[in-house]
Every structure is written in C-alpha cells, then in structure tokens.
Design goal:
This protein has 14 helices and nine strands. The chain has 322 residues and is α/β, with parallel strands linked by helices. It has two domains: 238 residues, Alpha-Beta Barrel (TIM Barrel); 55 residues. β3, α2 and β4 form a beta-alpha-beta unit. α8 packs across α10.
Length: 322
C-alpha cells in the first residue's frame, strides 16, 4: 500500500432518505470513518435561510463530525446559508452537484448544474468567498455525457473549493451503471486539490482497488454502508494491512442506536423496513421473510429484524448464505 494512502480519509456519503439523522447516528456509533454529512438542505428561490438551517447540529453524530450539504441555484442565498452553517459550527460545507432526482434537476439544481458551468462557478465562488470554513463540491461526470467534465472539475478548484468528490457516473447512469473510475483518475491528474472517489466501493478490496487505480486521496461510501455497516472498519484494516475481525457486538450497538432514535418518530415503520431491505440484502430469503410479514407495532418489527440479523450473522460466521 503506497504510503500516501495512510492519510486516506473515509467519508459517509450524504443520502436523502436513507441518510437521515437516525442512520448517521447508527453508523457513527459503529465508527470506522472520519466524517459524515447531512442529506442536502434545499435552499429555494425565496428562502428564510435561518429557518432552513436551524436544525443543523455539527455534534449530532459525535464522535464523528457532521458536515453540511446545500442544494440550490441562487449564489447569494447559498453563500449566506454556507456562512450561517459555519457560524453554527459546521467545519465543512458542500454543494450538491450530483443528485439525479428529476424533482431536483427540473429546478436547475443538483446534477443539472453540470450543464450550466458559469452558474456552477458563480455559486461555488460566492460560497467560498463568504464561508470561513472549507467549501467542497460533490459532482457527477455530467448529465448525459462528459462534454463539460474537464471544465467543471477545473472551475471547482478555481472557485476556491478545498476538495472535489466525484461520483463516477452521469445523471443518466443513475446508480446502476458501473462507476467509471477512469474519470476519477483524470480528475486527480488534472487538479491540485484532494480528490475523493465515490462509486462502486462495495468491499475493502474494491476500496483499495480504487485508490490504486485512480490515485484518489480519499473515499466516500453511501449505500454499501447500509448493506454492510462494518465496511469502514474492513477498509481501515485493509489500509493498515492487518486482518479484519468481525464484531457483531459493535454492529448490534449501532443498530440499537438506530432503533432508539427511530422510535422517536411518529411513523417509524417505513424507516425500519428500509434499513431491513439494505442490511438483509445479502440474504434474499431473510429479506423477503421480514418484508412480507405484517407487524402490529414498530416494536414487533424491531424484534423480528433483530432475529433476522442474528440469523444473518450466524450464517456469515459459518461461511453460509442465510
């Protein structure tokens, strides 16, 4: 392992829905990564910015620090929001330029900004100019193609951003097309700021593979952390070239945090089933069994999910498929 990979930082990707605070608290309790980030905070055309960011708490996922991600199209409003987030304790503020949702891109935000480089630059420039903490950007390759790719990654650096995270897919690719790691390699070649690679990191082996093939500085993981909450620890072990030991107690500790937090919601059942659909994905039988049952209460669903996770871990320990 090259020596510079000893400084590799691991990031939990911001994810709408699944990336809600309960999920981030669960993974923070499990640990193994350096930083998480809020799901995007949408800044609309006529915002009352203070009210939009009032819920942000950089210590909500302690001991893992929590950065803030913004989404929108108005440079002045986004700059003001970044400034206020920094005042609330955010140590980093990120602009979302990668969300592929049509409800977002139809308003010119998210990955649609990749088709308007001048606006993208102005937003990032104003944010960097006003915000006293590092501003970063999370991009995709492009919307339908890579025609603006080189221009977009350079303007991120020219605007003053301290890091570029590249999700190596286009908007059109969604989440299913294989990630195109060669674009991460090209970004690393083109820019001087750190590059954080994102896309198709599904194991410790693929994490090391991305670092070696692209030369990127850091790694960001999203959906796979829901499927395998211990993945950051697996990667840490691989980076240090030491054996990884399964830690079921640590996994359960984190899941208990999730259950405790999610029960504070008025309607927690959907989130419980969403977590189950990810964490039981390695066992189609257990996943189907859990999701097709009828539960009278959230506590009943939680008890059933605990049992399913026990069965999954036992099967994995024995080298079997549950």
């Amino acid at each position: 392992m090259p020596s510079h990979h000893l400084t590799t930082r691991l990031y939990l990707a911001p994810m709408e829905g699944l990336g809600a605070i309960e999920f981030r608290k669960m993974l923070a309790a499990i640990g193994g990564f350096d930083e998480c980030c809020t799901e995007f905070i949408r800044i609309p055309t006529n915002p009352h910015i203070a009210s939009l960011i009032k819920e942000f708490n950089p210590d909500a996922t302690s001991p893992i620090p929590q950065a803030a991600q913004l989404m929108g199209v108005n440079p002045g409003h986004l700059a003001e929001a970044a400034f206020l987030l920094a005042e609330k304790g955010a140590h980093r503020v990120e602009l979302n330029c990668g969300c592929p949702s049509n409800t977002v891109t139809g308003k010119g935000a998210g990955s649609s900004l990749l088709d308007t480089p001048d606006l993208l630059f102005e937003i990032l420039y104003q944010m960097c100019k006003k915000c006293p903490v590092p501003v970063t950007a999370k991009l995709r390759i492009g919307v339908d193609d890579d025609l603006n790719f080189i221009k977009n990654i350079h303007l991120v650096q020219e605007a003053g951003c301290k890091m570029l995270t590249l999700h190596a897919r286009t908007k059109k690719d969604g989440y299913t097309h294989p990630a195109r790691w060669d674009y991460i390699k090209e970004a690393k070649k083109q820019l001087d700021i750190p590059i954080c690679g994102n896309g198709d990191i599904t194991s410790a082996e693929s994490a090391i593979d991305m670092l070696q093939k692209t030369g990127c500085d850091h790694l960001m993981i999203g959906r796979q952390a829901a499927k395998d909450p211990l993945i950051f620890h697996r990667i840490q072990s691989a980076l240090k070239n030491i054996p990884f030991e399964e830690n079921f107690a640590l996994l359960l500790r984190g899941i208990d945090v999730f259950f405790y937090e999610i029960l504070k919601r008025h309607s927690p059942m959907g989130s419980i089933k969403q977590l189950a659909s990810y964490i039981l994905s390695q066992s189609p039988e257990l996943k189907k069994e859990f999701l097709t049952q009828t539960y009278q209460t959230p506590h009943e669903a939680i008890t059933s999910l605990r049992t399913a996770i026990d069965k999954l871990f036992i099967a994995q320990s024995l080298g079997q498929t549950a």
